[in-house]
User: Which sequence fits this backbone?
Protein backbone atom coordinates (compact mmCIF):
# COMPACT_ATOMS: atom_id res chain seq x y z
CA UNK A 1 0.00 0.00 0.00
CA UNK A 2 2.82 2.40 0.85
CA UNK A 3 4.58 1.85 -2.46
CA UNK A 4 1.29 2.35 -4.31
CA UNK A 5 0.82 5.73 -2.61
CA UNK A 6 4.43 6.67 -3.39
CA UNK A 7 4.07 5.64 -7.02
CA UNK A 8 0.84 7.58 -7.46
CA UNK A 9 2.39 10.64 -5.81
CA UNK A 10 5.40 10.57 -8.13
CA UNK A 11 3.09 10.15 -11.14
CA UNK A 12 1.04 13.16 -9.99
CA UNK A 13 4.22 15.25 -9.60
CA UNK A 14 5.36 14.33 -13.12
CA UNK A 15 1.89 15.23 -14.45
CA UNK A 16 2.04 18.64 -12.75
CA UNK A 17 5.54 19.27 -14.07
CA UNK A 18 4.62 18.29 -17.60
CA UNK A 19 1.68 20.72 -17.59
CA UNK A 20 3.74 23.75 -16.55
CA UNK A 21 3.90 26.54 -19.11
CA UNK A 22 6.50 29.21 -19.80
CA UNK A 23 5.82 32.69 -18.48
CA UNK A 24 4.30 35.22 -20.87
CA UNK A 25 7.08 37.82 -20.56
CA UNK A 26 10.63 36.79 -21.39
CA UNK A 27 13.19 37.09 -18.62
CA UNK A 28 16.37 39.13 -18.96
CA UNK A 29 18.22 36.13 -17.53
CA UNK A 30 19.19 33.39 -19.90
CA UNK A 31 18.53 29.78 -18.88
CA UNK A 32 21.53 27.53 -18.30
CA UNK A 33 23.01 26.34 -21.58
CA UNK A 34 23.93 22.90 -20.26
CA UNK A 35 22.93 20.56 -17.48
CA UNK A 36 26.62 19.73 -17.03
CA UNK A 37 27.51 22.92 -15.18
CA UNK A 38 29.17 23.39 -11.81
CA UNK A 39 25.91 24.85 -10.46
CA UNK A 40 23.95 21.69 -11.34
CA UNK A 41 26.70 19.40 -10.07
CA UNK A 42 26.85 21.20 -6.71
CA UNK A 43 23.05 21.21 -6.45
CA UNK A 44 22.84 17.46 -7.02
CA UNK A 45 25.75 16.79 -4.67
CA UNK A 46 24.17 18.97 -1.98
CA UNK A 47 20.79 17.29 -2.32
CA UNK A 48 22.44 13.87 -2.11
CA UNK A 49 24.38 14.83 1.02
CA UNK A 50 21.30 16.24 2.76
CA UNK A 51 19.13 13.24 1.90
CA UNK A 52 21.78 10.75 3.04
CA UNK A 53 22.37 12.62 6.30
CA UNK A 54 18.64 12.72 7.07
CA UNK A 55 18.16 9.04 6.17
CA UNK A 56 21.15 7.84 8.21
CA UNK A 57 20.11 9.99 11.19
CA UNK A 58 16.51 8.76 11.04
CA UNK A 59 17.57 5.10 10.83
CA UNK A 60 19.98 5.62 13.74
CA UNK A 61 17.19 7.12 15.86
CA UNK A 62 14.70 4.37 14.85
CA UNK A 63 17.00 1.40 15.50
CA UNK A 64 16.59 1.37 19.32
CA UNK A 65 12.81 1.08 18.84
CA UNK A 66 13.02 -1.72 16.26
CA UNK A 67 12.95 -5.43 17.18
CA UNK A 68 16.37 -6.95 16.62
CA UNK A 69 15.23 -10.50 16.03
CA UNK A 70 16.48 -12.04 12.79
CA UNK A 71 12.97 -13.16 11.81
CA UNK A 72 11.92 -9.55 11.18
CA UNK A 73 14.70 -8.99 8.66
CA UNK A 74 14.42 -12.19 6.64
CA UNK A 75 12.85 -11.70 3.20
CA UNK A 76 11.37 -15.21 3.49
CA UNK A 77 9.16 -14.30 6.47
CA UNK A 78 5.86 -12.48 6.48
CA UNK A 79 6.18 -8.68 6.53
CA UNK A 80 5.66 -7.15 9.96
CA UNK A 81 5.62 -3.36 10.13
CA UNK A 82 7.89 -1.72 12.66
CA UNK A 83 9.32 1.70 13.44
CA UNK A 84 12.28 1.30 11.07
CA UNK A 85 10.02 0.47 8.09
CA UNK A 86 7.81 3.45 8.82
CA UNK A 87 10.72 5.86 9.28
CA UNK A 88 12.42 4.77 6.05
CA UNK A 89 9.12 5.12 4.13
CA UNK A 90 8.43 8.59 5.54
CA UNK A 91 11.97 9.86 4.91
CA UNK A 92 11.95 8.40 1.40
CA UNK A 93 8.61 10.00 0.57
CA UNK A 94 9.68 13.33 2.04
CA UNK A 95 12.95 13.32 0.12
CA UNK A 96 11.08 12.57 -3.13
CA UNK A 97 8.79 15.55 -2.54
CA UNK A 98 11.75 17.77 -1.59
CA UNK A 99 13.60 16.74 -4.75
CA UNK A 100 10.64 17.70 -6.94
CA UNK A 101 10.25 21.04 -5.16
CA UNK A 102 13.96 21.85 -5.28
CA UNK A 103 14.33 21.00 -8.95
CA UNK A 104 11.18 22.67 -10.26
CA UNK A 105 12.27 25.41 -12.67
CA UNK A 106 9.64 28.03 -11.82
CA UNK A 107 10.27 31.74 -12.16
CA UNK A 108 11.78 33.49 -14.12
CA UNK A 109 11.43 30.95 -16.96
CA UNK A 110 8.34 28.90 -16.11
CA UNK A 111 5.18 29.44 -14.10
CA UNK A 112 5.62 29.17 -10.34
CA UNK A 113 4.09 26.21 -8.52
CA UNK A 114 1.17 28.40 -7.39
CA UNK A 115 0.42 29.49 -10.97
CA UNK A 116 0.73 25.97 -12.38
CA UNK A 117 -2.82 24.61 -12.51
Assistant:
Amino acid sequence: TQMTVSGLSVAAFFLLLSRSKPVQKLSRERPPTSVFSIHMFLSILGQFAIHMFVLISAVTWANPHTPSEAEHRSPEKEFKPNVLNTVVYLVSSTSTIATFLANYRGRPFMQSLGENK
